[in-house]
Amino acid sequence: MIVATQKPIEEIQGFLKARGHRKVLVLGCATCVTVCNAGGQREVETLASLLRLADDGLECMEKTIERGCDKEFYDGLDELVASCDAIISMACGVGVQLAARIYDKPVYPALNTQMMGINEGAGAWSEACLGCGDCKLGIRGGVCPVTMCSKSLSNGPCGGSQDGMCEVDQKNIECGWALIIERLKTLGQLDLIEEFAPPRDWSKMHDGRPRKIVREDLAGDTE
Amino acid sequence: MSELKSGSNLEKMLAAGHFAVTSELGPPKSADVSLIDKKVAHLAGSVDAVNLTDNQTAIVRISSIASGKLLVDRGLEPVVQMTCRDRNRLAIQADILGAYVLGMRNLLCITGDHQCFGNHPTAKHVFDIDSIQLLRAVKDMRDEGKFMCGDEIRQGKKGELVPPKLFIGAAANPFADPFDFRVTRLAQKVAAGADFIQTQCIYDMERFTEWMKQVRNRGLHEKVKILAGLTPLKAFRMAQYMNSNVAGITVPEKLLKRMEAAEDGPAEGIKICQEQIEQLRETEGVAGIHLMAIEWEHKVPEILEGAGLLPRPTL
């Protein structure tokens, strides 16, 4: 899922103060950011209360929609949005942008969108996919070198791998390539390591332009 | 002697079977050329070629290629280090052509330290390609006359094919993990195009010896020239620091004790280094040493003199 964390409240208040907004809609999302306890209904209530407490007279309305990255879930919000000066979105960056695309009102982010990650237990997540558009997990034992290696090496590990840990942070970051090697050993596929991995096609990733996908099989239906 | 790939002094030295000696020069963190002049004065005549680090430990310095030009002008052969951290494949290939036309003939292809260790930790790193892909790219440029995209290295269809003829180096760290994989990685680098290897600095001779055994078992010492990395210890404190703070380096207890007990730390450090050289010269498959006397370049002639490696052969 998409993992996000809340911005410092001062930064959020700063958006409002800078433009003198007095009536805002705090808009949550009931999908990923609810699961990671960053921007669901509960966090909307808390943030709205805190903003009211800190600024007497600030009017904060609250709403949480099912999925902030899908247009249809904004249906029925027009009146509410029309009545306020600005939206504070508690969705991930995708939701913030979709709201900004729909409404002629300022939309401010309450979260910093962090990553696509795995839930590692209460309050812990780790990054697991960078959305490179050219998945090599099939030949890397299900461990992603682009994400799990601090240098995204295609042919690793580098000389900074120590006792299974990455020199970038030997206490907290595992060497992605040590994980790959261990996993391939377990699977009996270590031969895959010796093969030269050619330079990646980064054009399939974000590099250079925002990606768009149109699936003819699906898009055709809407015509 | 088989046909030379680059004609560099280092290549000739190794091809002739001499025990080669390279050293390292960290370019200044300012535009002060006199610092390079000083180091050049210490190293000239004592070593076969000198590595120029490329923003080592991710700290901004005069670029390795610009420093390489200064060395070429001063008659000292450079080994230009090139990391994958700061440039994409366009810049890498442009810089390779640039280094070549400025007279540089040796290129060491390395991944590069992560930017978090340096003085710009908030920088975006590149790693468009990795060190093994870089080796392959330089080899293909030299031997196939082709850029990474497949285009030929010529100016237009009728232009002459003018590829950069470089002697290609790679790094190896026998002390990193997983240990069993280190020789596999060396084999990958040799297959990708490495002509010579410079290792991480060695203190743990036992583990290095074990690594060399694995190297010989795969016959890699016959395909690539291996220069063993050495960094003389200046003091007990330095030995402790290297042991506990530098990832991938262990200084064995025996050496720590010797440095601690020594009345004259620097002299003991040099003695240890010379003993290592003696042992390395006897090790099958070691073709030379890479002496990285960090901010101690003026000691290089003394170390080599005592080790019986001076004067250097001239070719």
Characterization of the model:
The complex is a heterodimer of chains A (223) and B (315). With 223 residues, chain A is α/β, with parallel strands linked by helices. Chain A has helices at 9-19, 32-35, 41-54, 78-82, 93-102, 145-148, 176-187, 191-194, 216-219; strands at 2-6, 23-29, 59-65, 86-89, 107-109, 111-119, 125-129, 161-162, 165-166. Chain A has a 4-stranded parallel beta sheet with strand order 3-2-4-5, sandwiched between helices. A 3-stranded antiparallel beta sheet of chain A has the order 1-6-7. Chain A is elongated, with a radius of gyration of 22 Å. The two termini of chain A are 31 Å apart. Chain B is of the alpha/beta class and 315 residues long. Helix content of chain B is 39%, strand content 14%. In chain B, strand 6 (196-201), helix 7 (205-217) and strand 7 form a beta-alpha-beta unit. The longest helix of chain B has 17 residues, at 265-281. Classes of the chains: A alpha/beta (223), B alpha/beta (315). At the A-B interface, strand 8 of A face helix 5 and helix 6 of B.
